[in-house]
Structure formats: C-alpha cells, structure tokens
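Write out a record, fold above all:
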Amino acid sequence: MEVYEEAIDYLQTYKVAGMDKVEPDLIEDVFAVENEDEFMSNRLQAPSTVLPEDGFISNTLPGDSIDLPDTPTDWAPDILLEKRLVVLRSILKSEQQYLSELETLLTPMKALKASAGTSQPVLNPQQVETVFFQVPELREMHRNFYDGLSERLEPLLSTEPEGGQRQATVQPPVGDLFLKMVSQLGVYRGFIDNYESAVEIVRTCTQADQRFRTLAESMMSNKGPDNCRTKYTLEALLYKPLDRVTKTTLVLHDLLKHTPEDHPDHPHLQEALRISSSFLAGVNEDSHCKRAVTLTKGIRRQLMRDGFVVDASECEPSLRHLFLYTDLLLCTKLKNGTPGKQTQYRFSWYLPLAGLRMNLGPVREQPADLQHRISATRGKMFQLREELKQEKGSKGLGARTLDRSRRKLQQCELWLLTHAPVLPLELHSPSGKSHTIFLSSLYELDEWREAIEKLKGENLETVPPDLLALTSSCVKLRMTQQPSLQSLLPDCKDRHLCGTLSIVVHSASGHQEPASLYIRLEVDGYQFFDNTAQTRPSLNTLTPQWDEEFSLLVDGAHCLRLLCVRQPDKREGIKGYRVLEKTTQELDPSLLLKRWKRVTMSMGQVEVSLSLKYCAHALEPPRAAPVQQPPVFAVPIGELAQHERVLVPHIVRSCSEEVERRGLDEVGIYRISGATSDIQIMKKAFDTNVRDAISRLRTVDVNTVSGTLKLYFRELPHSVIPSELFQSLADALEIPDLRSRLDTMLTILQSCPDVNRNTFLFLLHHLKRVAERQEINKMTLMNLATVFGPSMVRPPEVILGQCGPPVDISQEVVVQVQVLYFYLQCQNLPAPQTLAPLDTEEDTEVAL
C-alpha cells in the first residue's frame, strides 16, 4: 500500500479531491468473472440448445465485479462538471511536468551514444541502450496524450466566462484520449522490467567514472514547478515513470468520480480505469512475480508472448489465455473467483518447447447448426451496433442504457471469438501429448508459430516448472489484458472504414525460387461479415499473377493484413503450408476514394501489387443464412464473368492452371477423362462454392480436373465463339492467301464480346503450353483441337419449322476442329486479359 499512499500525497499536492482512501478491491481484472467455466460453457452447451428470445446468454459480461467510484448524486450537474474541470486542469499541468522530466532524462542520451563509439566512452552502447530503454517511447506516448488533451481543453482554459462560471455544456469529451493512453501502458512493462538493470548501471558508473558522476548528479529540467529550473539526479529521473504508472490509476479514479453517468466520457473512463487497474495490479506486486527459474544454460525463464486463443482439447471450444515462456507453453483458464478478489488463473496444460512439433492443421468444418448460430449472432451484433449509434445521437438516454447495450454487444463478440475460429495450430510434444489451438486470423496464428519456432531453435532444456507458482504469476506477468473485442475500442468514425472495401490482388515479385503461392487478405473491425479473402494458388513461378477482385463489407476497419502463403504439392499434404511473408497496412479512409488506387506493398524481399477502392455507405444487416451462390455450370459465360467481376471465369483459370501444375506430363491429358462420378462431384462443388471447389482441385485426380473443364465448356448454353460467327469463320478458312486468312480470322475473333474473346484466348495459350509437351503427353495441337473444337465453335441452331439448306453434321465438325486448329497454330495471338481495366486515379501508384 506504500505506492498508493504516495500517490494520494501526489493528488493532495495538486488539490485533487475525492481520494481520501483507496480500496484494495479497486485492483480487479478487466475480465474477472464469478465462474468462468459456467460463463463460457453456457454459450453453446449442446446442438439442441437455442438462444433466448433476445439472443443472449444471461451471464453478465466479465468485469462487472470491479469496484468503480460512485458519482456524487447530491451535487448539481454544473458543480460536478466544474470540479471535473479542476481535475482535468491538474492532470494537464501534471502531464506537462512529467514531459519536462522525461525530456530532461533523455537530454544526455545522444551525447552518451556519440561517446560510445570513441576510444574513451563514458558508457558502452549496450549500457546506453539499457539506461534509456523505452524512455523515448514513453515520451512519445505522453506527448501525444498531452497534445490531444491540451487541444481539447484549450478553449476552456484560455478564457474565463462572465461571473467566473464555466458552462458545463461546452466541456469537450476527453475519455477517448485516456482510453487510448492506457491501452499503451504495455510500454511501461518493458521499462519496469528493465528498471533494476538501468539503476544498477547508473550506480556503478557513478562510482567508477567522474565524468558520468558529474552528468548523473546535476541534471537540470528546462521547466519545473512555477516555471523554475529544477535539479535532478539521473536515478531520481529514472524513478519518475514508476511513480507515474501508479498515479495514472488514481487520477482516472478521481476523474471518473466527478464525471456524470450520462456524460459521453463515462463509459470510456470506466474502461480506462479497468485497464489501468489491472495493469497496476501486476506492477504493485512485481517483486512477487519475478520467480524466474535458471535453466541449464544459465537463461532465466521469462514470458515472451501471451494472448487469447481457442483451445479444442475439451469437448467444446474454450477461450483460454496462452503464455509462451522461454522454454514452455502454458495454457490457463480463469479461476472461479468472488467479487472484490484478485483474478487468478487455473492451470489447464503445458508443453515443453524442446522437441515440440507444430502443424497448420486442416480448416475446421463447422456444423450446419453452428453456422446458423454464428449467422444469428452476427445479426444480433449488427442490430446492437446500430442501436448504440442511435442511442449516442439521442438526447435523454443515460449512460446505463448505453452501457447495457455495449455489454450485450461484448457478450456477442466474446461468443463469436470462441466459436467462429477455424484455423488450427497443432502442437505435438515428444512425450505424446498433443493440443490444438484455433484462431480466426492466419496472421496471428503465424506470429505464434514464429515465436515458438524462434525459441525452439535455441534448443533449451526444460526445467520442470512449479506449475502452481508459474500459473499464479500469470495475472501479474501478462501483457495482454483482455480478448480483442472491437466493442472495447473507442469509436472513431473519421478514422475507421464503414462500407465496401474493394481489393484487387494483381501480382507479386521478388521471390527467390518458383513456388505455388496465394495471397490471403484479413481486415479487422466488427465481424458482421466475412472479413477475409484469398486468391487461388498460382502456378510454380517467380512472378505469380492473380488479377482477382474481392469486395469486403467492413465496419470499424482500420488495418489490412496481407500474407503470402506457399501452397504445398500433393505429396507434402497439409504440412506443406507455410507463410512466406506477411505485412500490415493502416487503412485511412481519407486516402481511399471511390476510384481505384494502385499500391505496392513490401513484405521483406517480396512486393505485392494491389489496387484499393473504398466506398463509404450504410450497411445492410447480415443475412441470417449464407447467401446462395449462383451456379457456374450451364450459365451463359457473360453472366458468370459479370458475377465474378472478371473477364475469364474462375473455373477456367483454376482448372487450366491445375492441369499445367501437374498434368502436362500425363499421357492423354484432355483425351482421357476422369471418373464420371468424380467429375459430377466437382461440378456440384463449383455450383455450390467456387472457393472450396478450387481448393479441392488440388486433391483430385488430374484427369478429373481436365474432365471438369471440358464439361464446363460442353454445358455452356452458348458456345464461347458466338454461333452467328460460325459461317464467317467457315468462309474465312477458304481464303487461299494465308496472310489474308489470318487477318480475317483475327478480325472475327476481335468482334467477339470481351468475356468470350479473352476466355477463348486464355484457353488457346493454355492448350499451346500443353502441346509443347506432346512428346510426353501425346497431345498434339490437332488432338487438342479435336477435343475442344465442338464445344468452342458451334453452328447456329436450326429452328423447327424453318426452311434451310440441308445440314452436313460431319462437315460442321470439320469446321469446328479446323477453326480451333488454325487459331492454335497462330504465332502472334494477343495475350488475354483476365480482369477488366480499372478506373484508376492518375499517378496514384505508391509503395507501402
């Protein structure tokens, strides 16, 4: 309690009222619950369980048990807001003083760094790094907070209304600034962990080096209290951040106490106090949680990473807190607690890192009833989100109404976070123990994999942990305070995207070796809709080309994640999947307009070319059931291409590329079809879900792939080359002069609709590549023309009752084959376009 008493003295120094006594119960976790197992299990107990009428489970959201300050109810609103302004003024003054102290602390850093490279350094580079570790980041964090707060309060502080009374209604909201500041308190964790090392260096060098002693014992601040210069020691300045992190919680407590419940800042300040209090719990008892174990190589067991994952070890998916230490993985769950008690964790399982094997498992199939509940939950989330928007804009609604709706929204998000993830990471230890964790984001899943792989590479031996001590220390060591819920973040409409984000993935370059690759896109924000997409796998090449367009409905999005993933071949199976590169990009709505913007995103040595377009608009509620995809087969090719927003349908590109990937050396490819039943299965797959069908192509026999492509063209209601051009093509074949014949044939081809022409050209180039391996696959240009000619070029249909010349079917077949054979022999065929030209802004291609 010494730190609390010191903080109270601080508040009294600046005449901030309302903190006569600090209750220990204030230090509660953001997500403390009375019975976590019951809280989670009640969300999906059995397939037969249904949601109540309002769609919610009756348990309260974690965090209800935290003790928040009571707002005085016997004060008039104008008096309460006047006292609130006094608190804000003292906070602003204190921030200014603290920034001055941080600036003073950093004053000698550049000089010490410069001397470190000389023959007589004051401190070596490592010592300089240790002494000033995280201090620049702290200064930047508090500088941004001070500037924002000063800008908001400046109109109130620069003038004094008549009569000395300020108008309560003109006080601007500042809760979002405090919430943003406390969300960055993790910066203090690094400083605190490093503090003892920094102080030890300062004390040792002060005794050993006169130059350093002179510097460390006479540091002058530029602006102290009452604008006077103040003298500090370096060690005293290093203590200031430790002092500050404690005062943050107490100041928030007092500010919330003087903020009316119906004030727009009230929910933000509540959340900020919860986060700050939880962080302070670990700091205040830091000496008790540094129970590090010295491993066999003299390395201390330290927490490297933690976060929330879905554990599938039990019958039902469960949200768990995963901790990655230097030599082991520890999975925990919240222990049953009571209001007013400190949150604790219960041990779930652990795996040593030594010898640990990891696999990206197959995507989890979701049962139909679970899919329905996910859709229903998304719809309820959307409804609550819209209600919150309306309530915030309405007058007369108190903070309690807003808080109730927000808690319901958080309940829905938490349920979705637990049951929607389908991307697994399988963990197998040499002892035979195995566990699987699930996440919704492949980006986050790969970050876990990378962190574990890095520690595995050090080949540490595991000292059997004291599981009780290790688990009990998690609440103090953790860096992630709560699950990532969008509803817990401040709502900044001008900084987030709400509408349709369109993305075209063009190509990639910079790869060192050929590979089959695909690009995965992930967008954050509310998960009302599917916010992920991925291209089809490319061919084995150094310069993959996709030209695929995706449209994502987003709400609250501000970040785009891009991953370049290696697609394994059939021999490698699921274990061959590997994320080669990944990156993130902030989405600024002011820079994304209604016209396409071409951008290049760098991921290490790889560069990916994209086009982005954003259209802001009100969103329609998500559908209760998944949207039924229009069929692919037996649909006019122009309608299919328009629906897919391409010039060459996905089925044509994916089947052709799969044949080129593993069928060029197959004898009789396109002449020998796969099993009819397998082809019909693929047809149904494409008619149901194109993306799933494209993924399934990798696992079926290559003759089934070629048979599927032939069936698609055969079942088109109209041939790719319009039938009205059949006679013109037949006449062109009779032109004796080869040059004139070629020009006429190309002119006829150019007259075809864009989709028909480009699809035909795409197939021609593909078949020419197949014929290049004719010595192996025995498929000459004539053989291929014989297979595809009747499907690609058809004569006009004879209408019953109309008179016409007698039809020679054999002659028609000859024309069909000869037309395709002629085009296949052309050496100067135009390259196909797979995507329509974009309405791109001029000179907008930028590198990110």
About this structure: The longest strand covers residues 497-509. The longest helix spans residues 77-106.
